[in-house]
Design a protein that fits this description.
The structure holds two protein chains of two kinds.
Chain A: E1 2-3, E2 16-18, E3 20-24, E4 28-34, E5 38-48, E6 51-58, E7 67-70, E8 78-83, E9 94-98, E10 101-107
Antiparallel strand pairs in A: 1-8, 3-4, 4-10, 5-6, 6-8, 9-10
Chain B: H1 15-26, E1 35-37, E2 47-51, E3 55-61, E4 71-75, E5 78-85, E6 95-99, E7 104-111, E8 122-126, E9 129-135
Antiparallel strand pairs in B: 2-3, 3-9, 4-5, 5-7, 8-9
The chains are: A mainly beta, B mainly beta.
């Protein structure tokens, strides 16, 4: 699994890269990304040509008419892409968003699991 | 933020410097082309403070923190945020390829720039962002003071002798 570059036409001009955890079990590949401020309807998860893209829009906050006293984070849309290994089923991706954290699960293709080949004695 | 406590950028000696440093970090473009978000170690959780004449508005990014496990308190002019971000339990045999997210307990004390009315604080938690509205104490709100300027005849500027 490798990161994807910004050459993709889908990338917005300015975006934040969400922090991501990626883990792999014998059944699935799991990506967990922090996307605070993204509502479920503002999250997009797509798979195209073996590339998983997830992006989220952050609605403008109550900043209008308020003066900033102290700032430790900036707000903006999120975008990140990963190229999926072939042994995962890109058409069976599941995404769940909870409290600003998206969890994406991609099941492993059964056919790619290691198989034991019975050997016959002759 | 390395200091653990907040400086008011308008009054604190390091406020402007700190703001500039944050901007610098946030402007770091990663090799993937996007701006790092949550990838640069700093105090957790990050906090923004905004204000108008009546109230302070505090926003805090807490993705993945259960609202029920968040302990929020205000004592005097110090706001304390306490909680824990739990690491998900993976089944045995899981290989972790990337870990950019951070986990663990946090406890952050923030000195508010003005006195607030604790009894009328409102808190909202949506999509991993905590929003707090803290009404300012009446003495902390700006007041219009009428100033009368007296013109002294003798001091008035004159065109010459």
């Amino acid at each position: 699994m490798t990161g994807f570059d910004k050459q993709s036409p889908a990338a917005p001009p300015r975006y934040f890269l969400p922090a991501v955890d990626v883990s792999e079990s014998k059944d699935e590949l799991v990506l967990v990304a922090d996307m605070p401020g993204v509502a479920p309807e503002a999250l997009d998860v797509t798979v195209e040509g073996g590339v998983l893209t997830f992006s989220g829009r952050v609605a403008p906050g109550p900043e209008r008419g308020l003066e900033t006293v102290h700032q430790e984070f900036l707000k903006g849309d999120y975008f990140r892409q990963f190229r999926l290994p072939r042994e995962f089923l890109a058409d069976k991706v599941e995404a769940v968003l909870k409290a600003g954290v998206v969890t994406i699960r991609i099941p492993r293709d059964e056919r790619s699991k290691p198989r034991r080949i019975p050997v016959r004695a002759e | 933020m390395a200091f653990g406590r907040l400086f008011d950028p308008r009054h604190g000696p390091f406020g402007d410097l700190q703001h500039d440093m944050n901007e610098l970090f946030d402007s770091l473009v990663t090799r993937y082309g996007g701006l790092a978000h949550g990838l640069i170690p700093r105090a957790f959780p990050p906090v923004n403070i905004l204000e108008n004449q009546e109230a302070l508005l505090i926003e805090c990014e807490l993705p993945g923190v259960e609202p029920g496990s968040l302990d929020l308190s205000i004592t005097g002019d110090v706001l304390t945020l306490k909680g824990e971000r739990l690491k998900p339990v993976n089944p045995a045999g899981t290989t972790e390829h990337i870990q950019e997210r951070t986990y663990g307990a946090f406890n952050r004390a923030i000195t508010l720039p003005v006195g607030v009315d604790n009894d009328h604080a409102e808190a909202k938690f949506a999509n991993g962002v905590l929003s707090l509205r803290l009404p300012k104490l009446p003495e902390a709100r700006p007041r219009q003071v009428a100033v009368k300027i007296q013109q002294d005849e003798n001091q008035a500027p004159s065109g010459g002798k």
